Input
Amino acid sequence: MILRATLPPVVSFVAPSGTGKTTLIEGLIRVFVTRGLRVGVVKHDAHRVELDKPGKDSWRFRRAGAFRVALVGDEQLAVFSGLDGPVPVLGVVARAFPGADLVLTEGFRRSSLPMIRVHRSAVDDPSWEPPAAPIAWISDAPRVARGVPVLPLDAPEAAADFITERLLAPVEASPRTTLAFSLGSAADPSAVRAAAARLGGLVTETLVVRSPGAPAVDGLRTVHDVRPGAGPLGTVITALVAARTERVLLLDGLHHTAPEALVRSMCAAAPLADVVVPERWGSPGIGPARYGHRCLPAIHAALISGEERVDGWWGQVRVARVPGVR
Output
């Protein structure tokens, strides 16, 4: 389990203009994303920021007096918000990045955030005012600073390792998983028992979620669907609430014969992910898929909104894919 504070860890990169802060942050984002982290970025700009173009609908709504306007698509969300005055950087983090594992900022050298000084010998500006106590330097000159680590300039992996060790809580490599079978009226109890015997050694426990009219399965812990009117999402909710672990690998009636290799890889993959599915996963089935407890608020919000698609809420959580054919 990852230990979370109220705010995600924040680290700021500071340097004179032209040093390569943006390139470094780009590299760090790629490294952290491949490690399964959700990364936010805040850039300080002392000038007026005008992102909402005059004449656009969002601009018109803001001009009419809306406090905040959101534009929502299947793959992007943009929010235009008015401010009554300055907002501290951690206020921005609290407002804009509630689901982040880590936030990288560019600038804010007068704040008390943990800071990393970026230094490039060819463009160093002696008149630039450095931060008082950086936690590290990233430089092309190994002996540029004393008393703090000096990391290589063009090696984002090394910087990512330092930030992980210094700021991020350890993540359990193999969190406990419940294997849950979704049982409909046409299910074969003997097939479910055979699958549980075959796959049970890969997980912490096994569980059967029984829909109305489904046959009983002797010898396996069984719970009844607590939200039968919610369709497949009711099965997901029931499995997550009933499981004695923080995440559930759910197999629906079409996938009780899932290969052992696929189940093993889905249990082990992306410990930080809220949802894990095979690469060629597709709706409307609920499995094979791995769900975590952090999915519950998003699922409830989807149901209240009238969205019953199994993947209609995935934009609110962290989704990872593993090799395998559904």
